[in-house]
Write a structure and sequence with these properties.
Number of strands: 20
Radius of gyration: 22 Å
Helix content: 25-40%
CATH architecture of the largest domain: 3-Layer(aba) Sandwich
Structural class: alpha+beta
CATH topology of the largest domain: Vanillyl-alcohol Oxidase, Chain A, domain 3
Number of domains: 3
Strand content: 15-25%
Distance between the termini: 45 Å
Shape: globular
Bound molecules: flavin-adenine dinucleotide
Oligomer: single chain
CATH class of the largest domain: Alpha Beta
């Protein structure tokens, strides 16, 4: 139980709002992206700057409250909230500032991916981020960060140059290649465990404004041929291309012939961040096998980075399991197709079994950033886990969760 006088003093001291269980805003303030996460913190402290974060950390220590830190709130497992503790909500700490000469950006701890994308693209630059613009930069940078640019420019975490962080004892420290090197090593991959990052400095790269993106779709009875094409292609394709393969239930209104709607289709998607001529040449082999649909075309980078925002909107109920695999044996592919053809099956509500080419090709050839390997990206860099598959379910009811849970052991 929080001391009432201490809580009142804490409220007065903070520039941001402190929301408790009896406040009208409580339910909105405690919500996170994933609709199946339903935790009830005692307090949500909306921090406006590093000073607010320090005060909130010290208050939590004095009151013996569990702390959860929230930036974009997109942790699918709900790691940015808690029961009975205090959520440090960094959403008021948005904003990114670009230095176009140095090709760097200073980004606040609660910024969203779209904040950084928009600022950087104003100068023809980009930092590798994820596929959805309302995802938090902090979660991506501290845990990895896979996306369209990862094979050419690394994961988000590979592009962190320095951080400012509030430690568990309420001190603010800086970490980078020249200071607190061990902390800097740790935060890039396991960052959610070391303190509250109030700002990041990122390396940027020339990208866009136009890149080439699209997908080809095939009927599911061609799946083994498509898997073979994807495996050969993704092992040799230049780093400019980020290629993914997946199965999905075909939805109406997406250009596929009517007889395929409601049935599984195989998709191979790619983003190519090189010149349009190079992209045309590099993506050509993917367009073989006479696809049902081919959408590869030059597209605006910012439009791409926001095109899944609505589909992946806040409040969706999401459950996913993942595994890293060395290859896609034919019998495993058959099991995935079988799972896709069974219930639950609702067009567009299930993105299906996404078998992604992770950063392996690119990162295997990337010079090691230091003598000591770090985090998950270092494992990918070693090339031992070249591909990942993610059975994903989305919908109401336990049957959705069951389908992902049963899919994972079946494919590993
Ligand atoms: C719709 C959607 C799309 C996604 N797309 C991608 C993608 O394309 N690529 C990809 O790699 N991943 C993707 N993810 C996964 C996502 O990147 C991770 O869940 C990421 O951690 C989310 O970051 P966040 O800041 O929004 O999350 P939060 O839930 O706010 O935080 C995630 C974790 O980081 C901690 N944390 C947050 N901010 C800080 C901080 N400032 N200091 C210290 N710790 C902090 C939290 O406590 C929590 O443990 C996606 C997730 C969703 C829901």
């Amino acid at each position: 139980m929080t001391d009432a006088a201490a809580l009142a003093a804490f409220r007065r001291s903070l520039d941001g709002d402190v929301i408790a269980t009896d406040d009208l805003e409580y339910d909105a303030a405690r919500a996170v992206w994933n609709g199946i996460v339903d935790r009830r913190p005692a307090l949500v402290a909306r921090c406006t700057d590093a000073a607010d974060v320090i005060k909130a950390v010290r208050f939590a220590r004095e009151q013996d409250l569990v702390i959860a830190v929230r930036a974009g709130g997109h942790s699918v497992g709900g790691f940015s909230t808690c029961d009975a503790g205090i959520v440090l909500d960094l959403s008021p700490m948005r904003g990114a500032r670009v230095d176009p000469q140095a090709r760097t950006a200073r980004v606040n701890g609660g910024a969203l991916s779209g904040d950084l994308d928009r600022e950087a693209q104003a100068f023809g630059l980009a930092c590798p981020l994820g596929y959805v613009s309302h995802t938090g930069v902090a979660g991506l940078a501290l845990g990895g960060g896979m996306g369209r640019l990862q094979r050419k420019h690394g994961l988000t975490t590979d592009n962190v140059l320095s951080i400012e962080l509030v430690t568990a004892d309420g001190q603010i420290v800086r970490a980078g290649e020249d200071e607190n090197l061990d902390l800097f090593w740790g935060v890039r991959g396991a960052g959610a465990n070391f303190g509250v990052v109030t700002s990041f400095e990122f390396r940027l790269h020339p990208v866009g404004p136009t890149v080439t993106e699209g997908f080809v779709a095939h009927p599911v009875d061609r799946v083994q041929k498509v898997v073979a094409l994807f495996s050969d292609y993704s092992a040799n394709v230049p780093d400019e291309a980020m290629v993914t393969m997946g199965l999905a239930i075909a939805a109406p209104g997406h250009g596929l012939p009517d007889e395929f709607v409601g049935r599984p289709v195989v998709l191979v998607a790619a983003t190519h961040c090189g010149s349009l001529e190079q992209a045309e040449r590099d993506l050509q082999p993917l367009r073989g096998l006479d696809p049902l649909l081919d959408t590869f075309a030059p597209k605006d980078f910012i439009a791409l980075q926001t095109m899944s925002d609505e589909e992946m909107r806040w409040g969706r109920r999401f459950y996913m399991k993942g595994a890293y695999l060395d290859s896609f044996p034919a019998d495993m592919v058959d099991v995935i197709v079988e799972q896709m053809e069974g219930p639950p099956k609702v067009a567009r509500s299930r993105s299906g079994h996404r078998a992604e080419r992770s950063g392996a090709c690119r990162t295997m050839r990337w010079p090691s950033p230091g003598a000591t390997p770090r985090s998950g990206s270092a494992r990918r860099r070693s090339g031992r886990i070249p591909r990942s598959t993610t059975p994903t379910s989305s919908g109401d009811g336990p049957q959705w969760m069951r389908s992902s849970r049963s899919a994972r052991p079946a494919i590993t």
